[in-house]
DNA sequence: GCTGTTTACATACAGAGTGTTCAATAACTT
DNA sequence: AAGTTATTGAACACTCTGTATGTAAACAGC
């Protein structure tokens, strides 16, 4: 008794319909009936599975996050310190496969709650990592770890959003990671070949 | 016949009520009646001024943006090249004064449209600036200007969001700007006192 | 102050969407 | 094949929306 096939069919159809429609019209503009109609499912069936449309959206994004962390686990274990590298590359690949959903989430659809929660979680973890490094090396960091974490996360999300919004990516994932690493190590002014101005 | 005092009173009360309530319950959870009740205004009056709640929100944020660019104009003129400096400092000060609204916008409330539009506008302008610099110095940039722009904007917004969300800022605006400048010039690894890892 | 104009108000209304319930039917599992 | 479980369409009360009123109040200019 793994799971009834009808249940799976309905759930998947509704999830897929939601993604399609959010891309077309935006989350708030949608009605439950819009979704069930696209999914070719009765409205009553929707409520048999989900409380409301935000519930459906929450589950879809939760699944995405689960898929991401599953893929990230080995990469993170590899690169020990410093996230910019294998983990980021793996995330870009994941984003390429699930581009539609990434677009939706990164646009902040659905009140932006999933996005903000993800960003905050990343920032907290990153800040902790930075603090741990400072501790380990017995250095007083000149840059506040909290701020550094926000810089890092903001940078990643900004680039990721840009990358998934392009029709056909102007840069392959590997190039993006290379540039980000370069930037992190040498700074922005150096990277673009100029001296600071003001 | 500058403007009827009643009109101003109603508009302001509704705008203020919206800001309060969005912070308390989030934009989508609000009804027009919630807003008019808080503003102590009849519901019919709301519709005399605004089409719906997104219209009200759009005007409130448009005013904020207008205020920002007004304050930014002289600072941008000063620092000629390179935004990270006076303009950013001025923005932080503006954010401190209008913290509630900044929180709302940066959380992506109201479908995140104002935020995304602002971010995209910044990114386009920044990318153009980077390209112009490369042109001017006749250098082939090792980092894609488009990506660099997204990095920059993502970084600014990430830090800004963190900064306005704190109850009492852990760092004064001047410190934040100093660190951002430092980061931009020397890179992240150097800044935190460590060598790159992977 | 008076006067004509403009705004605010309370109320009512139709329409859309929500979330729930129910009995009949269809699809599934074992 | 039998028993279980999901889907369906219909009906329901409810909330919110956006519009349209006539009336009362507040306003600007003289």
Automatic annotation (TrEMBL), chains A, B:
Keyword Transmembrane: no
GO MF annotation: an example: DNA binding
Transmembrane segments: none
Keyword GTP-binding attributed: no
Alphabetical list of InterPro entries matching this protein: DNA-bd_HTH_TetR-type_CS, Homeodomain-like_sf, HTH-type_Tx_Regulator, HTH_TetR
Keywords: DNA-binding
DNA-binding region: 31-50
Residue span, HTH tetR-type domain: 8-68
Superkingdom of this protein's organism: Bacteria
The protein's name in its UniProt record: Helix-turn-helix transcriptional regulator
